[in-house]
Amino acid sequence: MFGSCCHCHRPGAAGFIRGFGPRMPAPIRLRELIRTIRTARTQAEEREMIQKECAAIRSSFREEDNTYRCRNVAKLLYMHMLGYPAHFGQLECLKLIASQKFTDKRIGYLGAMLLLDERQDVHLLMTNCIKNDLNHSTQYVQGLALCTLGCMGSSEMCRDLAGEVEKLLKTSNSYLRKKAALCAVHVIRKVPELMEMFLPATKNLLNEKNHGVLHTSVVLLTEMCERSPDMLAHFRKLVPQLVRILKNLIMSGYSPEHDVSGISDPFLQVRILRLLRILGRNDDDSSEAMNDILAQVATNTETSKNVGNAILYETVLTIMDIKSESGLRVLAINILGRFLLNNDKNIRYVALTSLLKTVQTDHNAVQRHRSTIVDCLKDLDVSIKRRAMELSFALVNGNNIRGMMKELLYFLDSCEPEFKADCASGIFLAAEKYAPSKRWHIDTIMRVLTTAGSYVRDDAVPNLIQLITNSVEMHAYTVQRLYKAILGDYSQQPLVQVAAWCIGEYGDLLVSGQCEEEEPIQVTEDEVLDILESVLISNMSTSVTRGYALTAIMKLSTRFTCTVNRIKKVVSIYGSSIDVELQQRAVEYNALFKKYDHMRSALLERMPVMEKVTTNGPTEIVQTNGETDPTPLETKPPPSGPQPTSQANDLLDLLGGNDITPVIPTAPTSKPASAGGELLDLLGDINLTGAPAAAPAPASVPQISQPPFLLDGLSSQPLFNDIATGIPSITAYSKNGLKIEFTFERSNTNPSVTVITIQASNSTELDMTDFVFQAAVPKTFQLQLLSPSSSIVPAFNTGTITQVIKVLNPQKQQLRMRIKLTYNHKGSAMQDLAEVNNFPPQSWQ
C-alpha cells in the first residue's frame, strides 16, 4: 500500500510486511523467554541470551512500539528479578501507567515498584498519574495506584496524595479500604506530621466485618501508637473493642475463608495481640482489661501446629510486656517451658531467648524449668546451645550452685571451642558470687583451668592467685593439687602459671607434706625444681609462663635448704637467655645472690594476705560463707597528694573533671613483677590514690595500694537482692547500633551501695572490637568500675558484654554519670561521650 520506503533500511528494522510498511517481528512471549533461559547450561550462555533479548527490547523501545510495550516490560522485569540491569525500562513503565488499558497499567505499576524508588527523580513524574488513578471509576485501577504509593511513594508524593488516600479510607468499598489503610501506614512513616489527618477515618475501622480491613486497620493503629504518645493515649479506649474482636476470633466456629490449621485467622490474632501489647504497656487499666482474654488465648490455643505456637508466642510477649497478674506471668513462662520440649529448633530458640529476657523479673518461675534448660546444653544446634548456656548462668544462685556448676563443667568439657571462653568466664563469675566454701571455689576454678585453661581471660590468673593467697588455711591443699595437675602436662598455660606461683610461694608446705584436706604426697626439693625447670625449657611455655617459673625457683631459695646451689646455677644460666625478660630477671636475681644476699630472705618472704578482693564480671558479690566476721563498710577518702598527669586525668578532663571523682579500677594484683614493674589499670599507668607507687621487688608480687572500698570485709549473708525488685532498667546509650543498658541491685547490708550492671549489645552486621567503657561521677560519690566480660560486642545482638559499676552514695543524692565509649567498628576507631541523668529514683534514694 505504502510502496517502497527508505524506512525499511533503518537500523533495527527486521523486515517489511507487504501492505503495512516496515515493522519489527513480534517479540517472543514471556513464557518462551523463561523456557529459553532455563535451557542455558552455563552462566555465560544465560548472559548471552539475556543480552540478545535486551538488545531486541531496546530496539522495540526506540521504535515506540505501543503494541508490544507491555510484553517487553514484563520480560524486562523478569530479567531484573534474575539480577540483570533493567533501568532503561523506567520511562516505559511510566508510559504504561499513562495508558488507558488495565493490562498496561498493571505491568506499568509493577515495573514502577520494582525499578523505581524515591532516590530517582523520575518517580515524581508518576504523581499526577497516581492521583488520576486514585479517582478512577474502576476499583482495581484504584487498588494498583494505592499499592504503588504504599510501596515506593516518596515524602513529596505522600504529602501531595495523602488527601486522596484519606478519602479512600472512608469509602464503603472494603477492597479499597484495606489497601488505603496500608497506604496510610506508608504515608505516616514518610511524613509523621500527617498522622492526625487519618485520625477521623480510624473511628469506624474496627467496626468492619471484613477481616482484610480489620487486619490492615490494626496495622495502621499500631503504627500510629508506636509513633505518637498522644495517639497511644487516644487509642487506649479501644482496648475493650479489641478484646471483643479477639474473643470472637477464638470462640467462633470453623470458617473456611479464614481457617489456618484449625485456627481462625491467626494473622489477625497476632496483629491484635501486638497492638494490645503496645496499649497495655505501663498502663494499669488497659492491662487489667486484657488479662482475661490473654488467659483465654493462652489456654484455648491448639499447640500441635506451628500456627498455634505463633499465637502463643505473641501472647507470651504481650503478657510479659504489660502489667499483668503474677499468675498470668507464670502461665506465660510455663508456655515457654513447653516450647523447650518442642522438636522444632526455632521454637526452642525463641523460648530460650524469651526466658532470658524475663529471668530477671520472674526468676522463681523460670527456675522451675531449670532441668529442661540444662538439657538444651546438649542440643546439636549451636545457637540453641549458646542461649541455653547464657540462661543457665542467669539461673545460678546460692541454692543450686553445686548442681548447676556440675552441669556447666560437664558442658565446658564437651562444648565447641567457641563456647569455652564465655563458659569459663561465666563459671568464674558464678563461683565468685555463690561459692559455698573457699575449697569448693578453688577446686572449681582449677577444674576450669585444667579443662579450658587456654580459653580463659587474662585476669583469671591474678584473680585465682589472689583467692589462694587470701585462703590461708587452704595453702597446703592448693599447692599439692596444683603440683599434681601440672605433672607432665604444660598445655594449659594459665594453670601452669598459677601452679608455678603457688609452688614458689608455698613450696615448703608441699615438701613438708602438711596437707590435711587430702592424703599428702611425698615430694623432694629436687622433684619440685625438676618440674619448674621442665616448665622453663618446655616448648609449650610462653615467655610469661617462663617468667613465673624463674621467679618461683628464685623464691624457693629461701624456702628450701638443700638445693640453693642448684637454684643459683639455674638462675645464672638464664642470665644469658635470648628472652630479654628472662635475662633481666636472672641478672637481677644473680645480683641478689652475690651483692645483696643479706636482703634475699626479706625480699622473697611470703606474700601477705591481700586486702582487696578483685572480681572479673557482671556481679560484685563476695560471700565469705561465715569464715570471717562481718565488718562495717568503710569508706575512706583517698590520701591527699599531687595526682600524676596520666591518661586517666585526660579522661577526667574530657568528662568535666573539675567535679568528677576518678574510677577506682580492679587491676590484676598478682602478676610477677615485669622488667619495668608496670602496673596497668583500666585507665592507664597511674596510682589513683595519689600515693607514690612502691618500688617493685624483683621476686615478689607487687600490691596496688588502694583505699578500702565498698564491699571489703562484708558479711557472709547475701549482699544483694537476687532480683532487683522495683528498680527498672534504663537505656543509657543507643547510637550507631550500640546499645548500653543499666540494671540495678541494692545492697542488703548497706543501702548506700548500688551495683549497676551494664549490658552492651550490637545490632549492626559486624562485631565491635576493642570495646572499652569508662565512667565518672561527681565527687560526692565513690565509683568502682570492674573488668568487662569481654572486649568484643557480637553483631546482630547475638551476645552482650557485661560490666559492673559499684557506686557508693552515702548522701543519697540524685545519681549522675558521664560515660566514654571507645571501640573499633568496620575498620575505624569510634569514640563517644554521653551523660546519663535518667537514673530511676529507686537506684539512689
From TrEMBL:
Q: Where is the composition biased (Polar residues)?
A: 617-628
**Membrane keyword on record:** yes
Q: Where in the cell is it found?
A: Cytoplasm, Perinuclear region; Cytoplasmic vesicle, Clathrin-coated vesicle membrane; Golgi apparatus; Membrane, Coated pit
GO CC entries: AP-1 adaptor complex; clathrin-coated pit; cytosol; perinuclear region of cytoplasm; recycling endosome; trans-Golgi network
Identify the InterPro entries for this entry.
Adaptor_Complx_Large_Subunit, AP1_complex_gsu, ARM-like, ARM-type_fold, Clathrin/coatomer_adapt-like_N, Clathrin_a/b/g-adaptin_app_Ig, Clathrin_app_Ig-like_sf, GAE_dom
Region ranges (Disordered) = 617-649
Note the SMART domains from the entry.
Alpha_adaptinC2
Chief place of localization: cytoplasm
**GO biological processes:** endosome to melanosome transport; Golgi to lysosome transport; intracellular protein transport; positive regulation of natural killer cell degranulation
Mind listing the GO molecular function terms for this protein? Answer: GTP-dependent protein binding; kinesin binding; small GTPase binding
Q: According to its record, how does it sit in the membrane?
A: Peripheral membrane protein
What is this protein identified as?
AP-1 complex subunit gamma
Name of the gene: AP1G1
